[in-house]
Write a structure and sequence with these properties.
globular; Rieske Iron-sulfur Protein; Naphthalene 1,2-dioxygenase Alpha Subunit, Chain A, domain 1; 17 strands; 7-stranded antiparallel sheet; 4-stranded antiparallel sheet; alpha+beta; 2 domains
Length: 405
């Protein structure tokens, strides 16, 4: 909940942020406090993260019954699971006995490994056991105080409010939040010919302790201005001058931009063109460009003709976040004779680009603490950033209006 002291702190920052939206020719970057202030992050937790739909992954990351992927969302340990009936759920990972995590402690999970597969969810502390739907099954040595039959009537793992959008799994902490799909109509149109829901995960990289603000991550992903410099030699197949920015309107839930391939049949990671099978059903336009999509605040998707990269964020503070990056391919790609080699090369090339981006983001975050941090003007190739700012400022203002009323 917002209090008057916090509102007094953030209100002038939000007022200053008004100059960060609008035409790219006149907009400027957000005030530095919006990136570095822990008090402003406290406001964002209430104004955005506790109200918006937060992506936690793709449902094919738990493709089989019993698959269970430990995730964290807004400091809440959770489990993305597929139950015996094939229903994808997001359950709390907190045992309802003494609060020990289902996955953690002596039963910790290697973040670099794929999902677990379990018939039951068992707390490693006292062996309380739950079904894949969250219901309590067993609680050893409890009959002397509270019989298990009685516990089963009231105890289960809490389930997050969730929705699946073209395979992307979202949760929301606001029980009164409206449906997700109506906010993503532009992305929905893009996915009408791009079967994101059918793609399967291959490589995954999980990182913790990333030292920059979550908004910087979205900005960097959606602006191609830096690619000719930071990624020189790595982005030649998608030159920045072939970028197109999508229109953004009040109420939109996504920001999108595309960049065309320099040559027909190109690929972001393959210097000599596309080597793996294309995703079926794509339009001619989709076959010849990369689409970058930001669904603030927790996911960025990069849609190529042969694969998708998902970057799923878990924000810890103003300047610390975690990220899980997953590459998804169509089913046919996995049977390609060279899939192992090519997908590994793609993964390694992706990591090089990631490390370049991360060096700039960490440097930016630190520099925004300077008394000389600018409210800089944008280049035309940064036209998506005022759109991202508008998404955030709309929600900042909404929260302040609610407080005032």
């Amino acid at each position: 909940m917002l209090d008057s002291e916090l509102v007094s702190f953030v209100r002038p920052i939000v007022e200053q942020a008004a100059s960060s939206i609008g035409p790219v020719e006149s907009a400027e970057i957000l005030p530095a406090e919006a990136y570095i202030s822990e008090k402003f992050w406290e406001f964002e937790r209430e104004a955005i993260f506790k109200r918006e739909w937060l992506c936690v992954g793709h449902d094919n990351e738990v493709a089989n019954s019993g698959d269970c992927l430990p995730v964290t969302v807004l400091d809440e340990p959770a489990l993305l699971v597929r139950d015996e009936q094939g229903i994808v759920r997001v359950l709390s990972a907190i045992c309802q006995h003494r609060g020990h995590p289902i996955v953690g402690g002596v039963a910790d999970h290697d973040r670099s490994a794929p999902c677990l597969n379990r018939r039951r969810l068992v707390c490693p502390y006292h062996n309380w056991t739950y079904g894949l739907d969250g219901r309590l099954i067993g609680a050893p040595s409890m009959d002397e105080t509270t019989p298990v039959a009685q516990l089963r009537k009231t105890v289960r793992l809490p389930e997050f409010k969730s929705e699946i959008f073209h395979g992307l799994v979202f949760v929301n902490f606001d029980e009164s939040a409206g449906p997700l799909a109506g906010r993503l109509t532009k992305f929905d149109r893009e996915l009408s010919t791009y079967p994101l829901r059918d793609l399967r995960p291959s490589h995954m990289l999980a990182q913790t302790g990333l030292k920059w603000n979550w908004k910087l991550h979205h900005e960097n992903a959606l602006e191609p201005y830096h690619t000719d410099y930071v990624h020189k030699g790595f982005h030649a197949s998608v030159p920045s001058h072939l970028t197109k920015f999508c229109e953004f309107q009040t109420g939109d839930g996504q920001v999108m931009r595309s960049t065309g391939f320099l040559e027909h049949g190109g690929d972001l990671y393959q210097e000599k063109g596309r080597s793996l099978p294309e995703i079926s059903g794509l339009t001619e336009e989709q076959r010849n460009r990369v689409m970058f999509v930001s669904i603030m605040p927790t996911v960025v998707a990069v849609l190529q003709p042969s694969s998708v990269i998902l970057s799923v964020l878990n924000v810890r503070s103003a300047g610390i976040m975690e990220m899980r990056r997953v590459i998804l391919y169509p089913k046919d790609a996995f049977s390609h004779s060279e899939f192992k080699r090519i997908s590994e090369e793609n993964f390694e090339r992706m990591k090089v680009i990631m490390m370049q981006d991360q060096a700039t983001q960490e440097a930016l975050q630190e520099a925004y603490k300077s008394r000389y941090a600018p409210r800089g003007k944008f280049a035309a190739l940064e036209a998506a950033i005022p759109q991202l700012n508008q998404w955030a400022v709309e929600r900042y203002r909404g929260a302040l209006v609610e407080f005032a009323s």
